[in-house]
Amino acid sequence: MCNAGLFTLLIFLFYRYTSFSLPKKYFFAGLGIKLLAGTTLGLVYHYYYHEGDTLSLFKDATVLTRVAYQAPFDYLEMLFSNPFEKYPHVYEAIGNLDVRALLMSKMISLANLLTNNNYWLSNLYFSILSFWGIWYLCNKLIQLFSLDRSIVVISFLLYPSVFFWGSGIIKESVLMGCLCFIVGYSLNLLYSPPQKPSRLSQVFDFLLFLFTLFIVFKLKYYYLAILLPTLMSLAISQKLINHHPRLEKYNILLFSSCFGLLVICASFSHPNLHFKVFFEVLVNNYYEMLKQSPKLHNTITYTGLQPNVLSIIQHAPQAMLEGLLRPYLWEEGNVLKKIAAVENLLFGGTFILAIIRVIVKKPKVSPKLQLLIFATLVYSLLMLTLLSLASPNLGNLVRYRVGFMPFLLLLILAILRLKKELPGK
User: Fold this and answer.
1) Residue 41 contacts residue 160 (beta carbons within 8 Å)
2) Is this entry keyworded NAD (predicted)?
3) Residue 311's beta-bridge partner residues?
4) With 0-12 CB in 10 A as exposed, 13-18 as middle and 19+ as buried, what is 363?
5) How far apart are CA 130 and CA 103, in angstroms?
6) CA 96 to chain centre
7) Residues 350, 34, 225, 55: what is their CA dihedral angle, to the nearest 10 degrees?
8) N or C: at which end does the chain have fewer Cβ atoms within 10 angstroms?
């Protein structure tokens, strides 16, 4: 009963806080789909796989929740640090001591305090929070660029793998909500017309932006290694063009130069992002994942992959193609793999149609939209390539793609809906 009230209050606050560019009925329909998807994901792992991240992370979270009930101050210390030596009996009971897994378990434990360690109720909290980040971005995209509502809804709320793997107690659910808020907040700063929101609203949005950056950095830092240079390059290029219109015809070159410099700077932000170390980690992770995948037909196999720039470039086309389109429909596998294969087939056909439409229509695109399109392609294709190289297991890759797939799909659907020019203000 208590959780029913909290759910209602949380949904009410999100509903009131949101500026609606989509019909309000979409809010409740999208939220319902999200909650159903999270519940379905839990059912699949409980009764089909019988194991997996969502179950192991929840089990670890219950250990922390028990500490919270018995020793609240000890729990608070564990929440903000990892004092392994001080509480060995606690950490010995936790199955996964990886820093990223621990962070996820800590977040789940907070939900467990509200639900009394009820997996299904905690699952709903995660789905609601993920939905809010996605809903925020959807409204900003329509508000700022006059995009067709249907393509935004399809890309972020109705695309099967996105709403399924981006829901419930799973890292990708948190990632999806946070990434969408980061992108929506950044685009709003860059493209929103001058206005005077309340100072409280500005402070809240900024603090939430910093918090979501922190969560993504701790959970999956490599997304930010591509996303932040992309957003910053977009902002710098657009601002320079606004002040110096003559640079407009060099917009792509300007973006590329900014992106290159920022990526070099990003390489110093995390030990694993130093170029030499990054390539070694990438390739080592590939071979390690390959060893852990007994069924080779469920993996992408690269011949002679080495930790150097030339080898990465040589294997990039295969990584992009197979990472985007596999599993193929004719490959053997279970029901979930066949569903993913059908989705990939439809996506591949849509992608080809979009290319044909561009060749036939030859649309006129404003410089502002050229930058947005190029930025979307850079982010999506780089993430696709890197994830496909580092994680050759097709089951994992289908899940990991939720961090960029809706953005790429949105671009493709926007192209298919064009007449003489892409939508946008």
Assistant:
1) no
2) no
3) none
4) middle
5) 16
6) 22
7) -120
8) N
Task: Report residue 265 as tokens.
Answer: 């700077």
pLDDT tens column, 402-419: 999 999 999 999 888 775
Q: How far apart are CA 172 and CA 403, in angstroms?
A: 8
Q: Are 271 and 223 in contact (CB under 8 A)?
A: no
- Encode pLDDT of 305-362 as tens digits: 898 889 999 999 999 999 999 888 888 877 888 888 999 999 999 999 988 988 887 7
Cβ-count burial of 367 within 10 angstroms (0-12 exposed, 13-18 middle, 19+ buried)? Answer: middle
For 350: left if phi > 0, alpha if psi spans -120 to 50, otherwise beta; the answer is alpha
Distance CA 375, CA 329 (A): 31
- Determine the Cα–Cα distance for residues 256 and 233; give it in Å rounded to an integer: 8
Type and span of the H or E element at 218: helix 199-243
Element of type H or E holding 323: helix 309-325
Task: Read off the tokens for 298.
Answer: 């469920």
| Residue keyed to tokens 């608070």 | 76
| Residue 228, token pair as written in the block | 């932040």
What is the spatial distance between Cα 344 and Cα 292, in angstroms, rounded to a whole number?
24
Which sign does the torsion angle of CA 41, 47, 49, 55 carry? positive
The rounded mean pLDDT for the chain is 88
Q: Retrieve residue 352's tokens.
A: 């080809």
pTM value is: 0.92
